Amino acid sequence: MGTVVAIIIVILVVAVAALSIKIVPQQRVGVVERLGKFNRLLTPGVNILVPIIDQVRTYHDLRIQQANVPPQTVITRDNVQVQIDTIIFYQVTGPEQATYGISDYVYGVRNITTATMRQIIGKMELDETLSGREKISTDIRVALDEATEKWGVRIERVEVIDIQPPSDIQEAMDKQMKAERSKRAIVLEAEAAKQDMILRAEGDKQSKILKAEGDKEARIREAEGLRQAQELEALGQAKAIQAVAEAEKRRIELLREAGLDEHVLTYRSLEALTDISNGSANKVFIPTKAVETLGTIGAIGDMLKSGDNKGSN
Predict the structure, then answer these.
(1) Beta partners for residue 68, in sequence order
(2) Quick one: which of 64, 72, 104 has its CA closest to 88?
(3) Got the DSSP string for 255-310?
């Protein structure tokens, strides 16, 4: 009997320990009720309860959770039925409110999402709906935040996964998109052809301009070369004349140094003129001083002749 009693006592101790000791994992909390009334929250770690008196009503996960909202068919402002699939990310921030504020906050979030979505889409046309996913998500999140604040739930994000219009609308949109793409392709092709013509004309224009500039530069260089050649030729002639004049000047100086006077020089000049006149030239130019000298010589000759006649008489 003693052994049986000991075993019963051990079993009771183990049962009491199992009922009184609760180990809660990280990021989870438990709601404790004492005699049916909320008492406290079980935090992560080891917690002690009073057996039979204290009971754990439920556990809440404090991590961010996600809830898929079943696809909903809603009507846009222009009377087009679209099917929208959404997903909601939420987090329990008040375990007590999430336990006693609503019976099932996940179900409540889904219902509010559906109702809010119908209101938002009903104010938008089809094109706005297809291109306004961000606006739809933001409006749904704001509406859910206002409703779930009393439930101890915070809506982190709402994502519109897919928006499906009816098949006939989708087909018409596909045709419109193809037509728009074809039109865009034609416009781009025409624009490319136009740009090509413009570039070709611009290239031809630049080519002509460059050619004209080249011809102009060639003519300028040719004229500059001709001018320099003429200047060099004139300079050479001037130097040649200067050299001849210097040589003549030197010759005359040498003659003067030799003691020859003007009459001898004039006589030499006459001899030179005689030699020149015997040449093949048709015309002979005689300097003025030479002409005067010739006149003086002629006068002297006449005087000599008259003297001879008188002596003979």
Answers:
(1) 87
(2) 64
(3) HHHTT--HHHHHHHHHHHHHHHHTSS-S-----HHHHHHHHHHHHHHHHHHHHHHH
Instruction: Let me know: does 163 contact 133? Beta carbons within 8 Å.
Output: yes
User: If we measure between CA atoms, which residue out of 176, 79, 168 comes closest to residue 129?
Assistant: 79
Q: How far apart are CA 228 and CA 88, in angstroms?
A: 93
User: 11-20, 52-61, 120-129 — which is least confidently predicted?
Assistant: 11-20
Contacts of 61 (CB under 8 A, 6+ apart): 27, 28, 92
Residue whose C-alpha is closest to residue 161's, from 91, 80, 76, 66:
66
Q: What is the pLDDT of residue 31?
A: 92
- Give yes or no for a contact between 74 and 125, defined as CB atoms under 8 angstroms apart: no
Do 74 and 129 touch, CB atoms closer than 8 A?
no
Assess contact for 99 and 60: CB atoms under 8 A: yes
129: burial class by Cβ within 10 Å (0-12, 13-18, 19+)? buried
Give the span between the Cα atoms of 214 and 221, in whole angstroms. Answer: 10
What number of CA atoms fall less than 13 Å from residue 157's CA on the CB side? 8
User: Residue 267: which residues within 8 A CB-CB, separation 6 or more?
Assistant: none
CB-count exposure of residue 297 (10 Å: 0-12, 13-18, 19+)? middle
Question: 197: which 2 tokens?
Answer: 């013509």
pLDDT band with cut points at 50, 70 and 90 for residue 60: very high
Rounded distance between C-alpha atoms, residue 165 and residue 202, angstroms: 51
Higher-scoring residue by pLDDT: 47, 248: 47
d(CA 279, CA 261): 28
